[in-house]
């Protein structure tokens, strides 16, 4: 999506004869929004319709947890067990009609290829590196990367070493925010990242072997398995605007101000009724009267999910690396007692976090119940004696700047 790319061999014009060893290749236009959105054109050795077997269909199952009371939530995710591969190992934590949010610690290789036929995906790589092998070519990834995979992309993760991801999947498009782009698609000077920070696949590899390969397709709220008699990465060339890419969170240039800057300044992606934001290490507000941490706020038609990636969260009660907080709609949230006062005079924050704000309420799963810290909702409540003790003990160095 970010810019036009071309890989491999292509004919002089689109929709004309293109042959390999005398055989006509199969041209496929992979396009979004009918024929008016972005598209890529791929040239295959085989018809991409060719299937040997339409095998099992497995519907998705979501075990919903409905907490008894409506309050702020904290989930400790650092201890979740590794398991499965980069797709089957995804564990759903929360979702709504616009976005699904999964945790994933894959420990097994993918022995199949995957294609999300009804959603765009963003995989935030908290830990690990490897390669996403795709029909568009090999895409290396590393710690801190957002791996952006448009719908329709056939791929598999080939991880190297320990891995930990947060996965966002949406039936809507996940895009670079419109306000960061000019009418031609170029990133504007005020955008917090530029085209050089966006990494398309490195290398296209064309496979011509005719052995059996399994492709699992996410469709109709389930997974359809197909068996092919050829390798699905049979593309000799492609060009266009639709392909997987990476952007590293450490390449996000934070925007700071004299007084507190609101979350939209941290926006990284736009989705249908949600946004994904990156909170990166940065200088804090510099007005002599500034309060560097946020004011209390009521997100009346929004829910705020934050995943804490790294940094010192010592002054945020109970929060640790891998914590997820959910500040739901309808009730205010803000800094813990005493923290606003303690933050005055701080000049920088070293925290790294990923936030997903949704405009519709998020539903929780049984996994959320297992990871739930029920004391979090009461962490703004203090008895007078406790208040005195906490003001003496708290270390403001790990100020959380993005509540
Ligand atoms: Fe907030």
Features:
403 residues, Jelly Rolls, globular, 39% strand, mainly beta, 3 helices, six-stranded antiparallel β-sheet, 30 strands
CATH architecture grouping of the largest domain: Sandwich
Separation, N- and C-terminal Cα atoms: 31 Å
- Domain count: 2
Structural class: mainly beta
CATH class of the largest domain: Mainly Beta
Strand content: 35-45%
Helix count equals 3
Output the radius of gyration.
Answer: 23 Å
Question: Outline, from the CA principal axes?
Answer: globular
The tally of strands reads 30
Name every ligand kind in the structure.
fe (ii) ion
CATH superfamily of the largest domain: Jelly Rolls
The fold-level CATH name of the largest domain is Jelly Rolls
* Main pleated-sheet profile: 14 strands, mixed
The helix content is under 10%
Estimate the mean pLDDT confidence: 93
Question: Could you describe the 3D structure shown?
Answer:
The chain has 403 residues and is mainly beta. 5% of the residues lie in helices and 39% in strands. The protein folds into two domains: 5-60 and 81-243, Jelly Rolls (Sandwich); 249-398, Jelly Rolls (Sandwich). It has helices at residues 339-343, 366-371, 384-393, and strands at 5-8, 19-20, 23-24, 26-31, 39-44, 53-59, 64-65, 73-76, 90-95, 100-104, 113-116, 120-134, 137-141, 145-149, 154-170, 198-199, 213-219, 222-228, 235-240, 245-248, 267-271, 274-279, 282-283, 297-298, 303-310, 323-327, 332-333, 348-349, 352-358, 363-365. Strands 6, 7, 9, 10, 11, 12, 13, 14, 15, 16, 17, 18, 20 and 30 form a 14-stranded mixed β-sheet that branches. A hairpin with a 2-residue loop joins strand 17 and strand 18 (222-228). The protein is globular and about 85 Å long. 38% of the residues are buried. The chain binds fe (ii) ion. Residues 297, 304, 327, 333, 403 line the site of fe (ii) ion.
